């Protein structure tokens, strides 16, 4: 799930990428995220993609960091926000 208009932090946001637990750790999340980024970069003036996550979710932070997202110390409510600059 993602938005098709820019929102907070002058970014397009990914709201959810969900992979069933029995299919996790098989590379499907990486494939899904790459395809999603390819699709989102076709949106008007897409220069930033943001993802919010709970601060205690270290695995999510590592996953998105490995995919090129960076923590600029932005926060969105109680969530941390990390950004991929396009």
Automatic annotation (TrEMBL):
> Which SUPFAM superfamilies does this chain map to?
Acyl-CoA N-acyltransferases (Nat) (SSF55729)
Return the Pfam families for the record: Acetyltransf_1 (PF00583)
Domain N-acetyltransferase stretches: 1-86
Give the protein's recorded name: N-acetyltransferase domain-containing protein
Q: Which organism is it from?
A: Candidatus Lokiarchaeum ossiferum
């Amino acid at each position: 799930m993602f938005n098709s208009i820019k929102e907070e932090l002058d970014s397009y946001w990914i709201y959810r990428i969900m992979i069933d637990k029995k299919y996790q750790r098989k590379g499907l999340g990486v494939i899904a995220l790459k395809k999603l980024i390819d699709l989102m970069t076709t949106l008007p003036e897409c220069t930033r993609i943001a993802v919010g996550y709970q601060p205690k979710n270290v695995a999510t932070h590592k996953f998105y960091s490995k995919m090129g997202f960076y923590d600029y110390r932005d926060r969105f409510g109680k969530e941390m926000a990390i950004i991929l600059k396009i």
